[in-house]
Structure formats: structure tokens, C-alpha cells
Amino acid sequence: MSQGPGAPRRRRIIAALLLFCAAAATALWIWRAQPGALEKAAPAQPTLVVLPLHPAGARHEEGVLAEGLSAEFAAELQHIQGLHTIARATALRAATDHLSPAQLAQRIGATHVLSGELRELGGDQLHLDLQLLDAPQGRLLWSHSYEQKVAGIAALERELAQAIAVQLHLPLSPSGIAAATLDAQVLRDYLQARELTDSPQRTRGIDLLREIVKKAPDFARAHAALARTLTSTLRGAGGGPAADLDEAQAESTRALELDANLAEAYVARAVLACRTGDWAGCMQVFARALELDPADADARTTYAYWLAALGYIDAALAQAERAWATDPLSYSANFARARLLDTVGRHDEAANYLAELGAESGGLIYAKWHNAVWRHDYASASQLVAAMPRSDGFRESYTVVTEALSEPRLWPQALPLIATSERANGGINVQRIMMPNPDYGIVITGLEKMLRDGWPSYYMLLWMPEYSMLRADPAFADFLKRTRLLDYWRERGFPPQCRAVGDSAICK
Known about the structure:
- By secondary structure, the protein is an alpha/beta fold.
- Among the domains are: 47-168, 3-Layer(aba) Sandwich (Rossmann fold), CATH 3.40.50; 184-292, Serine Threonine Protein Phosphatase 5, Tetratricopeptide repeat (Alpha Horseshoe), CATH 1.25.40.
- It is built from 24 helices and 8 strands.
- It has helices at 7-33, 60-77, 88-96, 101-108, 153-168, 184-197, 202-215, 220-231, 242-258, 263-275, 279-292, 297-309, 313-326, 331-343, 347-355, 363-374, 378-387, 395-406, 411-425, 440-452, 456-459, 468-471, 474-482, 485-492; strands at 47-50, 54-55, 84-85, 112-122, 125-134, 140-149, 498-501, 504-507.
- The longest helix is centred in the first third of the chain and has 27 residues, at 7-33.
């Protein structure tokens, strides 16, 4: 049958329409198949930073109360399920640097900011004005004023947590046993003690905590704080007095008798277990502490150091990175991450974190020197040596070792200076490991002492790729047995770089 002169044109039009429809259908199917095509991308986990309350008055005591209560609020807000809270050191730094909501979003990943003002009204009555902002816009989401006596502040903390949970559309989990009502002065003393233990006046803080637990023997958090502070001051020759070890053990036990959910008490017990070589107990108790308080960045970095002490370097780095995510502006979180990056041989990345820590003072200058040496940047190492304080007793040996790294003929001058620094400081100078043909037995003995005295940061030199020959020395096999690391590995699994060989192990 004849189709007429217009048929070819009609066929072309129909074919084009069919092709267009097929293409449109395919495009629609692809579009619908994309994740989130019909809705906005899922938001990141809400992240809250609790800035220190602004004290309305000029009294130092009011400032201590304001900062201490801010920390208490942050701890209670951790019971909001699905909320990530920024740790205290970063919150303090953010307040000191006067970071805006936009800067808080950019630098620490905050999605929400809780801030406010505290005013003392007399008679231990407080007035608080609090507000919740979003970040980065700084839009006001919620505000409220509270009046509360100091002694009943725990009730206000719970009320605040409930209000913030409602605003964020998140559930609030139980907070454990009900907090006892405290004498107002005891609570003030406790908050002052916490401030002192985080300062160069730590000894005064410890003494004040001792007074508090005598005055208020049922104050569980004071017992836990005392135990944890004591375990954090045990570094040095001999690892601290045996009386302090016993006291820390007793205080952590009493704290957990009063409240079985106190993370600080578990941190203290974990450190004590590690220091005695109870590796299984140490790891188990650290896990419990971080389950109770996942935002405790200091506890997590301590856990990371001890994981590294056991040879689990990758797991340790993962914990350090989690601590950094919770406390990105803190000195300890950045330092720990840098040290572990150095331990796995990622020295350029480590240098970036060390550079964020400011002036070359204290232990930082030595960490930067080692990092510079591992990067073969001897010019920077020389500059760092020039800034080292003579009072530490290491400057002379570091000077010669730095020069010997470029001029090997100078190595014979280094060993006497290293030995002199060791006699002055009562421990090993880790520069021994850098010398040609080092005595690995002496190095391992010195690193083991550092481990037992609570200095696992330097002890991690044992696991670095640069010093693999140390792990091939017979002294290393003896060390694994003596410290019971080998027993722990056999029970819980060997680190990735190690494997069982006969009655010992080989670690690459």
C-alpha cells in the first residue's frame, strides 16, 4: 500500500519522538537512582561545642565557677544520643581566640554552639542566661534563663540536657545514678581543684581534692578526679612514690563503689594496670572508660599511647585521630597524633601537626627535633637545638648529634655527652638509638624503663621503621618475654608487623 509522499518525514518525526522519550525515561531512571535525589543529603552528625560561660562579675571565684559549670554541662550533654561533643581543651581555646560560629564550623566542625553568662546573686544563688546557636550562620535556635542554687546544680544540668535534646530532635539517655545534692562550698572547692589540677599548680589541686574527699566522703567524682590526677603525675624516676600508687588505687576503688559509671575512675585503674604489665586488664578498662565518656580526648590519647606500647601502632593512630576529632585545638591531641604519625613513618604529615602547636618549648622542641632528623632536615634540627634550654641537660648532646648526622667523623664525641646527660637526668637519652652500631641491649633497657615509668611516647621509638634492626636484636626477644607482651599477643592476637616464631616473635 502506498504511504504517500509525507510518510518518510512522519516516520522520522515518530522515530525522533520515540528516541527522545527513551532518553528522557533513561535520564529519569538514572536521576531517581541517585542517593538522595528526592531529598537533601543527610546532615553530618550534630557536633556541639560548649563555650565557657562568661562570668558577669570580676571575681576570680566567679570565673572558676563559670568555667567549671561549663565543663559539667558538657559532660551531661554527652547523654544526648547521636550528639558529638567537642572536648574541653578545644572549647577553652575557642573562647580564648574569640572564634565566631563560622570559624567554629570551619576549624572544629561544630554545627551548634552553646554559650551564656553566669551571675552570682548572693546566698549561693546563681542566674544563668544560655543560648544555643547554629553554625556557621550563628542563628539563635533557643535561649533560656535559669535561677538555681549552687548545691542543686545537678538538677539544672539535667533540665538543660533535656532542652537541648528537644531542640536537636535527639533522644536523651539515662545519666546513671542520681547525683547527690552537695554542699555549695564543697562543689565550689571541687571546681577550683579541677582548675588547679589542669594548671602548673597541680600539687595544690591534689591537696584540695584530698581535703574534699575527707570533708565529703560520699562525693564520688572527687574520689575519681583524685585517682586520675595521681596517675597522671607518676612520671619520672621510679614512676612516683608507692604511696601515690596505692592512694590512686584506693581512690578509684572508692569512686566506683559510689558510682560504677565514673569514666575517670576507670581511666585511673587502666593506667595503673598498664604500669604493672596487666595488659589485658589495662585494655579492657580503657575500653570501658571510653564507652562511658567517648569525648574524653585525654583518656583516648593515653589509650592510644598504651596501644602503641603494645605494638598495635595502626590501632593507636586510629584512636589518636578520634581524639583529635573530638579535641582538634588541644595540645595533647595534636601532639599524640603527630607522634604516632612519626611512629608509622609519615613524617611530613607529623610535621604539620607539630607546627600547629606553637613555640618550641617543653617536650615539643625535642619532638620537632626528632621529626626534622627523620625528614633529613638537618638545618631545621640545628635551629631547634639552638632554642633548647640548657637547664634540661640535653643541649650539648643534641648539638653534637645534629652535627654528626651530617659529619659522621664527629660521632665519637657524641657518646660521652649522651652518657653525661643520662647521669644528670636518671634515664636514657634516646639519641643512643641514632648512633652507628648502637648497643641495642642498652637502648631496649632504657626504653623499657620509660614504658614502666609512664613515658610511652618516647618508648614508641621501638616500633619505628627507621629502627627495624633494633627489633632483630636478641635483646628484643628477651624484652618481649620479660614484659609479657608475647603472652598477651598469643592470647589476643599479634600486631600486624609481628608473627610468632617458635617460642618468640619476629617483628618487621
